[in-house]
Amino acid sequence: MTIAQILEKPIRALGGTWDTQRAVTALRDAGLGNGGQRQQEMRARAALRALNKTGVIVKTDPNSATYRLTEQ
């Protein structure tokens, strides 16, 4: 299972707005809190971009890494 797939579960369950910090927290809660803060943030941003690319989430602000669940 990829990190994006792991992150998808809490995003779908909780909804709302997702940014890097919220994604880092969700990944930590899922047991993926290893590595330094910068590494965790990079992992979370990459997962958010992957979920955006597959259409799970959409970017809410073109100037920041803030996303929300796609309307379904």
* Biggest sheet statistics: 3 strands, antiparallel
End-to-end distance: 23 Å
| Number of helices, where a helix is a run of at least 4 consecutive DSSP H or I residues | 3
Report the count of strand segments: 3
**Molecular shape:** globular
Fraction in helix: 40-55%
Uncertain runs with pLDDT below 50, 5 residues or more? none
Instruction: Give the strand content.
Output: 5-15%
What is the count of distinct domains?
1
SSE run: HEHHEE
Compute the gyration radius: what is it?
Answer: 11 Å
Q: Give the averaged pLDDT, no decimals.
A: 95
Task: Output the strand order for the largest sheet.
Answer: 1-3-2
Supply the helix-strand structural class. mainly alpha
Can you describe this structure?
The protein has one domain (3-69). It is globular, with a radius of gyration of 11 Å. Strands 1-3-2 form a 3-stranded antiparallel β-sheet. The chain is built from 3 helices and 3 strands, in the order H-E-H-H-E-E. A hairpin with a 7-residue loop joins strand 2 (57-59) and strand 3 (67-69). The protein starts with a helix and ends with a strand. Helix content is 54%, strand content 11%. It has 72 residues and is mainly alpha-helical. The model has no long low-confidence stretch (mean pLDDT 95).
For the structure shown, list the relevant keywords.
3 helices, about 70 residues, about 55% helix, 3-stranded antiparallel beta sheet
Helices and strands in order:
Elements: H1 3-14, E1 17-18, H2 20-29, H3 37-53, E2 57-59, E3 67-69
Antiparallel strand pairs: 1-3, 2-3
Helix pairs in contact: 1-3, 2-3
